[in-house]
Amino acid sequence: MKFFADTAEIADIRELASSGLLDGVTTNPSLVKKSGRDFLEVVTEIAKLVKGPVSAEVVALDHDGMMKEANRLRKIADNIAVKVPLTPDGLKTCKKLSGDGTMVNVTLCFSANQALLAAKAGASFISPFVGRLDDIGQPGMELISDIRMIYDNYDFATEILVASVRSPIHVLEAAKIGADVMTAPPAVIWQLFKHPLTDAGIASFLKDWQATGQKIA
Ligand code: E4P
Question: Whose CA is nearest to atom 10 of ligand 1?
Answer without folding.
Answer: 164
